[in-house]
Design goal:
The structure is a single chain. With 89 residues, this protein is mostly beta strands. It contains one helix and seven strands. Strand 1 and strand 2 form a beta hairpin. The relative contact order is 0.25.
Length: 89
């Protein structure tokens, strides 16, 4: 139940929440994309995956008095018309 609350509260509708941990004064939520074919960032059509980047952290909305960060490893996709770009969904 706590995963669905974090997912809706942080706007991670297209992702799966794997874990949440407390690190000092902040909360870090680890997420990954759902298992589906990567899509082109511009038009949303399926395309080939290129590679996966190392995990990155983004600042999210604070949860009460605690800072919140979302950690996710974005994928890159190869689009015939636009080249290699980052896929976040």
């Amino acid at each position: 139940m706590w995963k669905s609350i974090l997912k809706n509260g942080l706007g991670l509708a297209g992702a799966v929440v794997e874990s949440a941990r407390i690190e000092g004064d902040s909360i870090t939520v680890s997420a990954r994309p759902r298992r589906r074919a990567p899509r082109r960032p511009v038009r949303g059509r399926p395309c080939d995956g290129y590679d996966r980047l190392p995990p990155r952290r983004w600042r999210a909305l604070d949860l009460g008095q605690s800072r919140c960060h979302v950690e996710r490893a974005p994928r890159r996709v190869e689009c015939p018309g636009h080249g290699v770009s980052v896929f976040f969904q």
